[in-house]
């Protein structure tokens, strides 16, 4: 039966990128939001009862709402809504980060607006980790660490100073919050330099080492490895060696055994699944990669495949080639 499903998947449609992935309720809310309505978003968030899903859904909704006034309209209609206040902070942060990436002249202004919105959300939703995740996300706009809260002493001597207090506040509300730790990684990347990437790698190993079985933090080292690969992508001749090294293979196995094998399908981030499949394929662990490709199903995410070749269409081709090679090898066929 499993073999039949794999054969059908081989002959089926190309995988698609969908920010909602298999979350049908989120997809419906996104469709409503894109037409300028917020009622489905409000209903979805009211029905979201666990922090990992709340964090994920608010992030995806904010990315879709950042170019609209939908959340502003919701907040104006229901100024006492805690969920609307949190979404307002989410959208403000998304706009500030986009402005920074585009080198927009209003970046600093949008940063301050986002910081104010996130601070307000911490008071309106004192038990919610997302306002603290928002403040962590803004830390990457301060790579020189001019703000005191961005240069706090680390919990371990080998780690660099950073927004550790913000991370701790998110952790008090949702221990091992996935996005919070990814935001810390982005802060460390923003500080720049090869040595700083080594700091990010040390941080990812430390965070994964603290995490219980089933935590998405076990996938963090794979993201740092992709970031190093991305920065070295001008040196094509050595790229494949990056993935077959013993430490790379060990990181992939650890993510498989400590995260993937302890989680249910609906709990897994599509980005994490794609990073794990990519790492297992790159380190030639084909049978295990097939298990992850099967869990990915009809969806894919452009990162990390897009770093093998520019462009989303090429990313799909790389994904398909990797999946086919892994399945052929696992079936005992020639790739």
UniProtKB/TrEMBL annotation:
Q: What are the start and end residues of every segment in region (Disordered)?
A: 1-20
- Comp. bias regions, Basic and acidic residues: 1-13
Superkingdom of this protein's organism: Bacteria
Name of the protein described by the UniProt record:
DUF4034 domain-containing protein
């Amino acid at each position: 039966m499993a073999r039949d499903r794999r054969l059908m998947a081989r002959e089926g449609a190309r995988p698609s990128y969908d920010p909602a992935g298999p979350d049908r309720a989120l997809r419906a809310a996104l469709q409503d939001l894109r037409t300028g309505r917020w009622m489905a978003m409000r209903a979805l968030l009211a029905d979201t009862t666990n922090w990992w899903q709340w964090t994920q859904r608010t992030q995806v909704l904010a990315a879709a709402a950042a170019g609209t006034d939908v959340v502003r309209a919701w907040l104006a209609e229901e100024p006492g809504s805690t969920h609307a206040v949190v979404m307002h902070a989410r959208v403000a942060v998304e706009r500030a980060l986009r402005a920074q990436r585009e080198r927009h002249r209003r970046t600093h202004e949008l940063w301050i607006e986002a910081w104010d919105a996130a601070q307000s959300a911490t008071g309106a939703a004192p038990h919610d980790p997302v306002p603290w995740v928002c403040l962590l996300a803004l830390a990457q706009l301060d790579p020189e660490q001019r703000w005191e809260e961005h240069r706090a002493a680390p919990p371990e001597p080998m780690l660099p100073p950073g927004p550790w207090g913000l991370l701790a506040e998110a952790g008090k509300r949702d221990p091992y919050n996935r996005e919070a730790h990814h935001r810390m990684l982005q802060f460390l990347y923003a500080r720049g330099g090869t040595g700083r990437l080594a700091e990010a790698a040390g941080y990812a190993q430390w965070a994964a080492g603290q995490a219980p079985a089933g935590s998405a933090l076990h996938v963090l080292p794979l993201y740092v490895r992709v970031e190093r690969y991305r920065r070295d992508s001008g040196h094509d001749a050595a790229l494949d060696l990056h993935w077959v090294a013993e430490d790379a293979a060990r990181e992939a196995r650890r993510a498989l055994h400590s995260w993937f094998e302890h989680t249910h399908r609906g709990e897994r981030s599509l980005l994490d699944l794609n990073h794990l499949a990519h790492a297992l394929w790159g380190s030639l662990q084909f049978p295990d990669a097939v298990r992850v490709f099967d869990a990915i199903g009809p969806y894919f995410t452009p990162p990390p495949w897009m770093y093998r070749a520019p462009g989303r269409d090429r990313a799909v081709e790389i994904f398909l080639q990797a999946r086919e090679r892994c399945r052929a090898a696992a079936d005992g066929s020639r790739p």
